[in-house]
Amino acid sequence: MIEPSDNETLPNILSVGATVPEKVLTNEDLEKSLDTSDEWITSRTGIKRRHVLEKDETPSSLGVEASREALEDSPVGVEEIDLVIVATNISDMPIPGSSPLIVEELGLPSDIPFFDLKAGCSGFLYAIDVAANMIRGGGYDKILVIGLEALSRIVNWEDRSTCVLFGDGAGASVIGDRGDRGRILSTSVHGDSSKSKLIRLEGGGTRLPPAEGSEQDERYYLEMEGKGVFKSAVNMMKSSSLSVLEDADLTLSNVDWIVPHQANIRIIKQLAKSLGVGMDRIVVNLEEYANTSTATIPLAFKEGIDEGFIESGDLVLLTAFGAGAAYGATLLEW
Ligand code: COA
After folding, report:
1. DSSP letters for 58-110
2. Do residues 193 and 121 both lie within one domain?
3. Which ligand 1 atom lies nearest to the CA of residue 321?
4. 7 in a domain, yes or no?
């Protein structure tokens, strides 16, 4: 957890890159294989489309593309990156994680350290918190943080209550202390392990190892208690948002833009209502991408910048919740 103090320079989020696969699955496409409708999905979630990887595409290739964008957009050279953190819930393969694959494909120095971080859909904000603290600790200067997810590979495409909600995507940021934008004002990460069963994938680990015939077993797909998640989501994003504001001695009236985790438009609207903030100060893009887990925050943040909503000097609040239950927020001046 980072709080500002008068004599301390906090690191910056120097750049943001984001990407999604080309292939698009619309609600109408899903109507053809599932007992669902565009009307149901749109009214219950706000989602219209999602982008998904083709069979021969790899999740880490999305991370590489987003990272290239983030590196090009930053004043930092590839050779200066001294650590890579990949926030993901499902890496390309169980061992090793996706981080070394991305380091190699990006052509970063082969001797730098890397690790994967798993914190549900809050992974990108957890990774920012960890990176900022590691830089503050003095051991690192420029850290590449990636949020990468391909949930299309682990949802049950016959389960209408989950598969309609998710898409694939990746985002990346260079965290460092050079540059005049993206100054982090405070970060906070939190957990509520009493909710660890709300979102889960039981099969494939050591308790329930990969097994023959597992494609018939729902435990080998992402499962979720939708209503339970819904109820907790607003409280988690609200409390972490207020926590970073308090740490920075600021209030919601100082915030120009909130970029929340893009899971469901109804959750986002309730968050806005409970914070007393108008929807015109909230970045929303889930209609196009659905819930891309660790990638929603960089995807929406970048869209806000590219579309010209988020301008230089704006105070931006990023907030997310997800499996674990892990949640958190980051406050920055863009
Ligand atoms: N199409 C049509 N009907 C569907 C459907 C779909 N895709 N998915 C579920 N239904 C049905 C259910 O089977 C149920 O039918 P029944 O009444 O005959 O039993 C009905 O719709 C209502 O289901 P319910 O679960 O009560 O809907 P809901 O209003 O709670 O919305 C979610 C379901 C999943 C959209 C909502 O709970 C949600 O978004 N939760 C948060 C999930 C989330 O964000 N997860 C990721 C966190 S990182």
Report:
1. -HHHHHHHHHHHHHHTSS--GGG--EEEEE-SS-SSSSS-HHHHHHHHHT--T
2. no
3. 48
4. no
Contact 298, 124 (CB under 8 A): yes
CA of 259 to the centre of ligand 1 (A): 24
pLDDT reported for residue 3: 56
CB 258 within 8 Å of CB 317: yes
Question: Does 229 map to a domain?
Answer: yes
Structural domain for 111, as ranges: 12-180
Domains held by the chain: number: 2
Which of 145, 180, 215 represents a domain boundary (last residue)? 180
Closest Cα to atom 42 of ligand 1: 226
**Of 44, 125, 163, 222, best ligand 1 pocket probe by most atoms within 8 Å of the beta carbon:** 44
pLDDT at 7: 45
Same domain, 74 and 125: yes
User: Do 169 and 88 sit in the same domain of this protein?
Assistant: yes
Answer yes or no: are the C-beta atoms of 86 and 63 closer than 8 Å.
Answer: yes
- Active-site positions read 121, 261, 291
List, for the chain, all residue ranges whose pLDDT scores fall below the cut of 50. Answer: 6-7
| pLDDT number for residue 224 | 93
Q: What is the per-residue pLDDT for 316?
A: 98
pLDDT at 178: 74
Q: How far is the centre of ligand 1, averaged over its atoms, from the C-alpha of 164 (Å)?
A: 10
Report the distance separating Cα 278 and Cα 273, nearest Å: 7
Which residues, 6+ apart, have CB-to-CB distance to 304 below 8 Å?
A: 257, 259, 283, 310, 316
- Tokens matching residue 5: 């103090």
Which atom of ligand 1 has the smallest separation from the CA of 224? 45
pLDDT of 252 reads 97
Residues 208 and 156 grouped into a single domain: no
In a domain, 2, yes or no: no
- Closest-CA residue, ligand 1 atom 2, reads 36
Residues contacting ligand 1 via CB (< 6 Å):
36, 40-41, 44-45, 121, 160-161, 164-165, 199, 224, 226-227, 229-230, 263-264, 291, 322
